[in-house]
């Protein structure tokens, strides 16, 4: 569940079968006067729009029942609730939910159409705020992906350090220093600075140097962790490993940054 604010009206957005559904109940609060969802649903143009959408998106849509409803739409006596619409036609575009966040929700395609009934201006702002929400979700997704990517070869790397570089009898504090030193071998090879140097240069930022790395840089880091583990197993001295890893980082970044698909990686 998420919330967006459109012209001082807070509107709930939920996920339903991986699709975004927007609260029509919340949207109604932005319309002046006493109006209900059924006022919009009884309109013939609304029924025709919903029917077209359901035929495209819903293989189980009851077209026969829809034709009956369509024939009555627009008449003075015609009334239709969201529940009746869903039950009679097996519609999926509009749903009713109970509980704390209950109300009538509609697929974003239908919700944007409903917004026009409130006002053209409201529709424009709704689309803009919804897109802003989607952009924020993508940023969060990218951050999570980057963090997960940075962990791909972490276990292999730390196991190599433990087996080859840490003596059998050391304290936990001493072992952590060795792990940190090896992590900084990668940091220096990739970024040209240690974690401590980065923190001192960026006291205003939270997290660590890898939190602010690009996807391309994290791909290189993941590869370098694996390569460094192999070099450690082979007994290559730390200084020599640093030089080789730096060369690898330069070559791999050159390939990634010049790749025709680099926009997919960033």
UniProtKB/TrEMBL annotation:
<feature type="domain" description="KilA-N">
    <location>
        <begin position="1"/>
        <end position="133"/>
    </location>
</feature>
<dbReference type="InterPro" id="IPR018004">
    <property type="entry name" value="KilA/APSES_HTH"/>
</dbReference>
<dbReference type="Pfam" id="PF04383">
    <property type="entry name" value="KilA-N"/>
</dbReference>
<dbReference type="GO" id="GO:0003677">
    <property type="term" value="F:DNA binding"/>
</dbReference>
<dbReference type="InterPro" id="IPR017880">
    <property type="entry name" value="KilA_N"/>
</dbReference>
<protein>
    <submittedName>
        <fullName>KilA-N domain-containing protein</fullName>
    </submittedName>
</protein>
<dbReference type="InterPro" id="IPR036887">
    <property type="entry name" value="HTH_APSES_sf"/>
</dbReference>
């Amino acid at each position: 569940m998420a919330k967006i604010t459109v012209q001082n009206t807070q509107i709930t957005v939920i996920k339903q079968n991986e699709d975004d559904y927007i609260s029509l109940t919340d949207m109604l609060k932005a319309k002046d006067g006493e109006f209900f969802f059924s006022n919009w649903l009884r309109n013939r143009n609304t029924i025709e729009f919903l029917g077209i959408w359901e035929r495209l998106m819903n293989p189980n849509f009851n077209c026969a029942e829809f034709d009956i409803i369509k024939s009555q739409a627009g008449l003075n006596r015609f009334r239709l609730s969201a529940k009746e619409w869903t039950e009679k036609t097996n519609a999926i575009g509009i749903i009713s939910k109970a509980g704390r966040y209950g109300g009538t929700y509609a697929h974003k395609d239908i919700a944007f159409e409903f917004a026009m009934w409130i006002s053209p201006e409201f529709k424009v702002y709704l689309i803009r705020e919804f897109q802003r929400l989607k952009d924020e979700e993508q940023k969060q997704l990218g951050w999570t992906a980057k963090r997960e990517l940075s962990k791909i070869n972490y276990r292999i790397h730390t196991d190599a350090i433990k087996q080859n570089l840490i003596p059998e009898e050391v304290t936990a504090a001493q072992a952590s220093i060795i792990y940190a030193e090896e992590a900084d071998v990668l940091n220096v090879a990739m970024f040209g600075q240690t974690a401590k140097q980065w923190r001192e240069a960026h006291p205003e930022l939270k997290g660590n140097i890898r939190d602010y790395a690009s996807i391309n840089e994290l791909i290189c880091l993941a590869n370098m962790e694996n390569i460094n583990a192999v070099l450690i197993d082979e007994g290559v001295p730390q200084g020599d490993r640093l030089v080789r890893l730096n060369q690898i980082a330069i070559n791999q970044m050159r390939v990634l940054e010049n790749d025709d698909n680099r926009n997919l990686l960033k």
